[in-house]
Design brief:
It is built from 3 helices and no strands. By secondary structure, it is mainly alpha-helical. It has one domain. The model has no long low-confidence stretch (mean pLDDT 88).
């Protein structure tokens, strides 16, 4: 009985991880325009999505290098 419940919990966890992973991999990041207002530390920290935040931070760093 314990083996069946462990197998069921493992299956549920694997399905949840698969669904979350598929959603994250299939969605497109929202492009943000690089400007002085968007490149402040507070503005970058206010972006809730980690992927979008990383993209914005990298774009701000590239824009700062070009100046």
């Amino acid at each position: 009985m314990k083996a069946k419940s462990n197998a069921l919990l493992t299956l549920i966890a694997a399905a949840a991880i698969g669904i979350i992973g598929y959603r994250n991999l299939s969605r497109q990041a929202v492009p943000m325009q690089v400007s002085a207002a968007h490149c402040t530390t507070d503005a970058i920290r206010s972006v809730s999505d980690a992927t979008t935040r990383a993209i914005l931070s990298a774009q701000c760093a590239q824009a700062a290098e070009k100046k």
